[in-house]
Design brief:
Keywords: Carbohydrate metabolism, Hydrolase, Magnesium, Metal-binding
Largest sheet: 6 strands, parallel
Distance between the termini: 15 Å
Binding site for Mg(2+): 8, 10, 166
Strand content: 5-15%
Structural class: alpha/beta
Number of helices: 9
Active site: 8 (nucleophile)
Pfam family, one: Hydrolase
Order of helices and strands: EEHHHHEHEHEHEHEEH
CATH superfamily of the largest domain: HAD superfamily/HAD-like
Oligomer: single chain
Pathway: Organic acid metabolism; glycolate biosynthesis; glycolate from 2-phosphoglycolate: step 1/1
Strand order of the largest sheet: 5-4-1-6-7-8
Bound molecules: 2-phosphoglycolic acid, magnesium ion
């Protein structure tokens, strides 16, 4: 059995809110709209770029329009790794799992291009056997098919896999695919989103939970 850990990206591996926030504020400025507080942006993250822009425009009383999304994708794509960093302890956890023989994958609702840019820019892309982005397959989280397609691309099996994420979309996708789920308590989602899943308070707390999860 080759164990495989499937990680969400935003709010789980990386603290990407600063660059998402900066890009959204530039879009607001372009439209003559007021900028956002960080907490407002964090509450809008989790369903991919299109929904993020939809929510941002709706919060300013505006209807969604495609040029806004296109502008955001260009701007964010060029600025995804300015302030974004891995959460403390993440690189060490990934290195430990690698040394223990785990396979690893990323399953994110972020479009795959900026996801790859970020993972490479932060020097952690070499840990992953596959990156399943929000636009990699016909569906995305919470649909479990997004997770199952990512697992297939990583050469893993659902029975050997655990999902780690910070949003109810991650919990729903993991459970829908029949996987144990660990909730990233350091991320963007309120703890209520764990919905009974074990919570890791810090990245280092993942290790015992991951090792135990596949023994259960
Ligand atoms: O891009 C988003 O809104 C969320 O991305 P995530 O699935 O990596 O948390
Ligand atoms: Mg997330």
């Amino acid at each position: 059995m080759t164990r495989i850990a499937v990680f969400d990206l935003d709010g789980t591996l990386v603290d990407s809110a600063p660059d998402l926030h900066a890009s959204l504020d530039r879009l607001m400025a372009l439209r003559g709209l007021p900028d956002f507080a960080r907490a407002e942006v964090i509450a809008m993250i989790g369903d991919g770029a299109k929904v993020l822009v939809e929510r941002a425009l709706a919060a300013r009383g505006q209807a969604f329009d495609q040029p806004a999304l296109d502008w955001f994708l260009d701007d964010y794509g060029a600025n995804a790794a300015v302030e974004t960093a891995t959460f403390d302890g993440i690189p060490a956890v990934l290195a430990t799992l690698k040394a223990e023989g785990w396979r690893m994958a990323v399953c994110t609702n972020k479009p795959v291009a900026p996801a790859r840019t970020l993972l490479a820019g932060l020097g952690i892309d070499q840990f992953f056997d596959a990156i399943g982005g929000g636009d990699s397959y016909p569906v995305r989280k919470p649909d479990p098919a997004h997770l199952l397609a990512t697992l297939r691309d990583a050469g893993g099996e659902a029975r050997d896999a655990i999902m780690i994420g910070d949003h109810h979309n991650d919990v729903a996708a993991g459970r829908g695919a029949g996987l144990p789920v660990i909730f990233a308590g350091w991320g963007y989602g309120p703890l209520s989103m764990a919905a009974g899943a074990p919570v890791a308070a810090t990245p280092a707390d993942l290790l015992p939970l991951l090792r135990a999860g596949l023994l259960a």
